[in-house]
Amino acid sequence: MKDTFRAIASRVSAWTGTATVFLGAVLIVFIWSLTGPLFHYSDTWQLVINTGTTIITFLMVFLIQNTQNRDGKAVQIKLDELIRATKGARTKYVGLEDLSDADLEELDKEFKLLTQNPSTIHAMKKLHEKIANEHARRHGASVLSVLYHNDK
């Protein structure tokens, strides 16, 4: 049952995110609005669009939430693997998503303080230079032009 729902949720989420479906929804609303005079803007005429959009929204919330939960979990696993595989990384940060809000806030404050440390600033500058050099190497641009564009 779970696998069937996951497969359906993924497909429907991908399909409903297309321009075609959006344009179809716009077309439905346009046609509905054109029929207003035909139905004398009656309560039933309004109820049709209200009921339809409410049902679709209600169902889409569950489909989108399922897709978001899966995507979020996959990203966390990838990040945890990068932390685990990076030499010198603090592996205690694997699984941070399970911490309380207070603990996460405390870690956020700690990292903000770290970024104000002069040695951290120097390390970040070196990292930015390394990234710029690699970018220039891959794309054939000069390091100076890459650094110039990054500073803007």
Structural key phrases:
mainly alpha; 2 domains; single chain; 6 helices; 78% helix; 152 residues
Describe what this molecule looks like in 3D.
The protein is built from 6 helices and no strands. It is mainly alpha-helical. It folds into 2 domains: 1-97, no CATH class; 99-152, no CATH class. Helix 1 (2-16) packs across helix 3 (43-85).
Number of helices: 6
Q: What is the mean predicted local confidence, pLDDT?
A: 84
Poorly predicted sequence stretches spanning 5 or more consecutive residues? none
What is the rounded distance between the termini? 52 Å
User: How large, in whole angstroms, is the Cα Rg?
Assistant: 25 Å
State which percent range the strand residues make up: under 5%
> Major sheet: size, sense and barrel closure?
none
**Oligomeric state of the chains present here:** single chain
Helix-residue proportion: over 70%
**Overall form:** elongated
Q: How many runs of DSSP E, i.e. beta strands?
A: 0
Class per helix and strand makeup? mainly alpha
Count up the domains.
2
Output the helix-strand order.
Answer: HHHHHH
